[in-house]
Amino acid sequence: MTELQTTPLAPPLRDAQGRVMTYLRLSVTDRCNFRCAYCSPASWGGRKDLLTAEEFARIASVFARLGIRRVRLTGGEPLIRPDILDIAQRLAALPGVAHLAITSNASRLETLALPLREAGVSQLNLSLDTLETSTFRSISRQGDLDAVLRGIDAAAHMGFASLKLNVVVMRGVNDSEVPALVAYAHARGITPRFIELMPFGQGTPVPTAELLERLQEAGLSLTPEPEEPGTSDTAGPARYWRTDAGRVGFISPLTRNFCGGCNRVRVASNGDLRSCLGGRAQAPLHQLIRGGASDEELALAVRRALGDKPEGHRFTDAGNGATLLPMMGIGG
Ligand code: SAM
Ligand code: SF4
């Protein structure tokens, strides 16, 4: 195994707009055991050229040397990788990486919650759109709701520093369950977050303002929290409201553009760097590594790609949806 370098490579890492990048999202696989209609084409087979655990650690170490402080593993479903604990251990051990997080559909968490915690994962974002078996089946196409609920319960007892529940809201599908999902999450000490559906697949979005109204009508008293500064390494696209029982978050890519405070850079499961969720590949890091590139050469490729990072996504532009990769390929 190659020894990883740890000396800083002249951080901070800035993009073309001067925004400082502190947050790396690594898609460790583009495969998934679910086929959510808004995320994955029914026939998505996945790529074959996935990075190895060692290659992910090499890429993350270069980003850590460039000032990245927070890493999230996503996918596809990251927990279907047989070497996910190895990946988590290697990344949690990197100097400079203060937070290691995972986004998961929770289907394998019943057995993995404890080993992931022990491997150094501190934060989990878990996805659950419905508490109804038949709705779950029609959204995920092949998921098992009971396994997901057992996985969420296992995680809730494991002492993670942060646990969030991601809910993608679709009109006429799960929008009537929003108050029940808030109660479900708060009963387990989890922060629910409602996401406006982005145009990667099927379904009709529900604007955040409408959800806030519905929660108030359902009797929740909601007080807005002050926004975190965009450049902090804990800041994200969500806005939070406080209720008597806990926080409720909203991610509103359609009705409230969050790009101004963007601090994140993405690497797809094949090693392509993507500076923006709504953009195209900009640096083939995998090929560079396999070609023997040094850390300095990788850092230069990253800086060049970020020099092209757009000011914001263009999901709402007419026709742009057709040019996007399936969400599974980039990891949300
Ligand atoms: N499989 C994992 C999961 O479902 O949590 C991680 C990958 S998934 C692509 C990451 C997040 O993106 C999930 O919370 C999912 O609900 C969200 N997502 C997928 N497609 C979306 C879409 N079209 N609009 C908004 N959110 C989406
Ligand atoms: Fe899989 Fe997550 Fe996409 Fe659903 S949202 S298909 S669980 S990657």
Radius of gyration: 19 Å
Portion of residues within helices: 25-40%
Largest sheet: 12 strands, mixed
Output the CATH topology. TIM Barrel
Q: Between the first and last Cα atoms, what is the distance in angstroms?
A: 31 Å
User: What is the number of strand segments?
Assistant: 14
Ligands, deduplicated = S-adenosylmethionine, iron/sulfur cluster
Characterization of this structure:
The structure is a single chain. The relative contact order is 0.16. This protein has helices at residues 53-65, 84-92, 109-119, 133-140, 145-156, 178-187, 208-217, 285-290, 295-306, 327-330, and strands at 13-14, 20-21, 23-27, 70-74, 99-104, 123-127, 162-169, 191-196, 223-224, 239-243, 246-251, 264-267, 272-274, 283-284. The protein has a 12-stranded mixed β-sheet with strand order 9-10-11-8-7-6-5-4-3-12-13-14. Strands 1-2 form a two-stranded antiparallel sheet. The longest helix is centred in the first third of the chain and has 13 residues, at 53-65. Mean pLDDT is 88; it is low at 230-234 and 318-325. Helix 1 (53-65) packs parallel to helix 2 and helix 3 (109-119) runs parallel beside helix 5 (145-156). The protein is globular, with a radius of gyration of 19 Å. The protein contains 10 helices and 14 strands. The protein is α/β, with parallel strands linked by helices and 332 residues long. The chain has one domain (23-330): Alpha-Beta Barrel (TIM Barrel). The structure holds S-adenosylmethionine and iron/sulfur cluster. Residues 32, 38-39, 74-75, 77, 103-105, 127, 166, 168, 195, 197-198, 200-201, 327-328, 331-332 line the site of S-adenosylmethionine.
